[in-house]
Design brief:
about 40% helix; alpha/beta
Length: about 600
């Protein structure tokens, strides 16, 4: 059993190294031999030897002569004998002589019982010794059997789900992933549909996923990973959550897209409005980028001003006006801007320094700025939290200089708190953009805010924005169920507990191994840098040792931990992550930090 990876996979135990496997196999063989001997002795005491049983040496046979009394012949035989002549009857009688046969009489050895009682414990002790030797020599904490149940007690009713969630990664290989990616590069730019997935900043080829469930992902080569990317944030309940899938299936039978109003839009809109302090009305889109594009046009239409302020390293999608000193994939690839963006598109975009109120006020003084737009917690330059004073100061400055304050909560919305960063920090913006979590893993985005601002959007007002698949029923259904799960008692307490444990364990492992590291977390969002710190803005983040991060990422990957493939991206936990997942990740991180 222990030497067979496929059986280990089904049972939920991590496959072990060959030497340990051989020891366990020998132990199992010894136990099997002793058990067989005991069974033989027991059988020899309880039954006579038959033609189907070869008696052990402890059983002796004695030849016995038995006289067989002839039974009366059958009727037809008597009739046949009556027809014989006297001479024939005499011959037949002479042939009917007594004969002998050997029978077996069980003769147990006087010492067999004692031998059995003494041998079995001795063999068991030897087997246990080798078994424990194998367990003590493993360098990485062995994964315990994983149950397909989230921490809130929502169990999986699907056998495949329970089976796959119990699986564990065996020997690492990426042959099939490499083959698929090499082909992808011939048919898609860079082989991917979004740049950061290409692993450019960490080296090597990306792994190609096959399936995901809970806190885990499996690639096409069969490797299992504890996943801390969570499809870049949406999988806050865990991948392919059973209740979310059931809701999507139920909705799908009615159609995948209507291109017409849908009641589910009303349901999700009301949940967003109830949760997010700044939102009185909401418009759904198909992505975070699309939400930010609509928001940008809306704030300019409402204020009748063109300039906007963003912050260095903050990412708001790939719209032309935002690709100025942006984070995320632009920072990852080292592109200060993007070719193809007209100068006129960025002429109205001003750039300030994060966590620096003076840099913001200098740009606001002419009162010609429509809005100040920021990630309230930066996740696209790595994890960079704000000071509360910075957010409160932005609220005061924008009010003073007649500009709108916009929180881009595509990443933080419903993740660091149910009401987003604005609930967590107690600072209410005028407009909010959202995405990721509110789609439950399906493509979605949204922007919302005060009613008087939102009513400039068509058809209520003159500012045009539209989308064929906006508000599609599948995304609405997935978002509704995801938000219902998040509202259950203990959800955010669990996220906060496991994420703090994870990041503190990683930082401690790094410092113990002599590395300069810094980082932190808020609820289910975390990140760290290979530098002394502190990191308060993008310029500070660039001091991180990205070459060391690249090695760290690859070594963690090959040991079954999937992290964002860039120093400039935050990580995410989910309700499906358990203490066992965190413990195993920290044990692996400790090993990697020592070898790094």
């Amino acid at each position: 059993f222990f030497s067979c990876p496929s059986l280990c996979t089904m049972s939920g135990y991590t496959p072990i190294d060959a030497e340990t496997s051989n020891r366990r196999l020998a132990a199992a063989a010894l136990l099997a031999v002793s058990a067989g001997a005991c069974l033989g002795v027991a059988l020899s005491h309880s039954t006579m030897t038959s033609t189907l049983y070869a008696a052990p040496t402890a059983v002796r046979t004695q030849p016995t002569t038995a006289q067989i009394r002839m039974q009366p012949a059958p009727v037809h035989a008597r009739h046949f004998a009556a027809d014989m002549t006297p001479e024939q009857q005499t011959v037949a009688a002479a042939q009917a002589v007594p004969f002998t046969m050997e029978t077996a009489v069980a003769q147990p050895s006087s010492g067999s019982k004692l031998w059995t009682l003494l041998a079995l414990p001795l063999i068991g002790a030897v087997a246990g010794f080798f078994y424990n030797m194998g367990r003590s020599e493993k360098k990485v904490a062995e994964a315990v059997p994983l149950q397909a149940m989230d921490p809130l007690g929502v169990s999986s009713s699907d056998y495949y789900t329970r089976l796959t969630m119990a699986a564990a990664t065996a020997e690492y290989t990426n042959v099939k992933s490499n083959e698929i990616f090499e082909e992808a590069k011939t048919i898609m730019p860079g082989g991917v549909s979004s740049p950061v997935r290409a692993f450019k900043s960490v080296g090597g080829n990306p792994v190609v996923f096959d399936r995901v469930k809970g806190a885990y992902a499996w690639d096409v080569d069969g490797n299992q990973y504890i996943d801390y990317v969570g499809t870049w944030g949406p999988a806050i309940c865990g991948h392919a959550h059973d209740e979310v899938l059931d809701s999507v299936r139920e909705t799908m039978v009615k159609g995948t897209s209507f291109g017409a109003p849908c009641e589910l839009e009303n349901v999700l809109a009301k949940k967003v409005i109830e949760a997010v302090p700044s939102v009185e009305m909401v418009r759904f889109t198909n992505s975070g980028t699309e939400a930010c594009m609509g928001m940008l046009r809306m704030v300019r239409a409402y204020t009748k001003k063109e300039k906007v302020i963003k912050f260095e390293g903050c990412y708001h999608g790939h719209a032309d006006g935002f690709l100025v000193q942006a984070g995320s994939g632009v920072a990852t690839l080292g592109l200060p801007d993007s070719p193809g963006v007209p100068a006129g598109s960025t002429a109205g975009t001003l750039v300030a320094q994060y966590n620096d109120l003076d840099s913001v006020e200098q740009l606001l003084k002419n009162k010609d700025v429509a809005a100040v737009i920021l990630e309230p917690v930066v996740g696209n330059s790595g994890f960079i939290p704000p000071t509360k004073e910075f957010l409160e100061g932005l609220r005061e400055l924008t009010t003073k200089y007649e500009a709108l304050l916009v929180f881009d909560e595509v990443m933080t919305g419903f993740r660091i708190a149910y009401g987003g960063a604005q609930e967590y920090f107690g600072v209410t913006p005028d407009v909010t953009t959202m995405g990721k979590v509110i789609g439950g893993g399906l493509p979605v985005g949204a922007y919302g805010g005060r009613k008087d601002i939102m009513e400039v959007v068509a058809p209520a007002g003159p500012m045009y924005q539209a989308g064929t698949l906006s508000g599609n029923p599948l995304a609405m259904a997935a978002g509704i169920k995801t938000m219902e799960i998040l509202q259950r008692e203990g959800s955010y307490e669990h996220l906060d507990k496991i994420t703090k444990k994870l990041i503190n364990g990683i930082l401690e492992a790094g410092r113990d191994a002599g590395h300069e590291v810094c980082g932190g977390s808020i609820s289910g969002m975390f990140g760290f840098f290979f530098c002394k710190g502190p990191v308060n803005r993008y310029a500070d983040a660039t001091a991180s040792d990205t070459e060391k991060f690249a090695k760290w990422h690859r070594m963690m990957l090959e040991r079954g931990v999937y992290l964002a493939p860039s120093q400039y991206e935050a990580g995410f936990t989910s309700l499906a992550h358990t203490d066992a997942d965190i413990d195993r990740t920290i044990a692996i991180a400790r090993e990697v930090m020592k070898e790094l």
